[in-house]
Amino acid sequence: MYNILKLKSIFETVTKETPKVLKIMILGFILIIAILIIKYKPVYEVKENGKTIGYIQNKNVFEGLINGQIINEELKNVDNISLLSEPQYEMVLIQRNQNTNENEILNKLDKEAVITYKFYAVNVNGKNKAYVDTIEEAEEVVKELKKEHKNDDIDLDITVSEKYTQKLEEVKTDKIEVAEKSVNNEIEHLLDEKEAKEAIAVINGINVSVLPVSGRISSRFGVSSSIRSGAHTGLDIACEEGTAIKAVSKGKVVFAEMNGPYGNLVKIDHGNNVETWYAHCSKIYVKVGQKVKAGDKIAAVGSTGNSTGSHLHLEIRIKGTAINPQKYLYKNK
Ligand SMILES: [Zn+2]
What residues contact 40, with CB distance under 8 A and at least 6 apart? Predict the structure, then answer.
């Protein structure tokens, strides 16, 4: 009986004491939580390469800001934006009075963003000659120049290529007209090189690559004749009426009409004070102001003006003075 009572008393003691300990523990726990909630708040710590760069309130909202403000920046020529390193997030407690710094972190990430720029090069025979912003502009330049040079007897390969850079200062693009000019300059340069290589004579620095007509010399420079008042100021080359007369070099038409004893006369200014004159033409194919290339058909052989038969009267003038064309052309004829 005694033993039973003793056991009961022990049991009662334990059940009475245990809730007390539990209560204290639970109270203590609540107190700690309460202190934590009053003093601290949960936030995300943002790390870059293991280094803390700040704290943010909401991870999803913040990643949305990165995508909206950094990755999708609407800058000119931007092909791609990526962050140098992806930020890592870790939930931590910070003191309630400490502020998060989303904007500061965004600015930092923005400064470190790697931006790849895309633009287009227009190439002449493999060499970059102009840069434009869009593929449409590049194709427009190519189209215009192919049209302009379609009759040129030259190996010309005008292409477009994509260019990428991470250096904005390398993206120096031009408007269509400026790009066209740059590409055209290169083509003109190639044409000049070709002309120089094929030159049959150089008159005062001007490359001559084409004979105006081929035929028999019927009257030389400087001779006197009963049909003229003074000495002959040109070279006569007899050929059939209607034969095409070609410009001997590139230049600009400065005269193209009937002119007394010369008949139908075409004058071409080649620059460097060099002019070539083509007289007695039956037809004129060019207009004043028109640019011509070596070999362009400018007129047809005839016998207009002071002429006794179908021939081309060719004059070469340097600073206005007629010189002997056979110094340069038809030398051995
Ligand atoms: Zn003549």
Answer: 93, 94, 95, 96
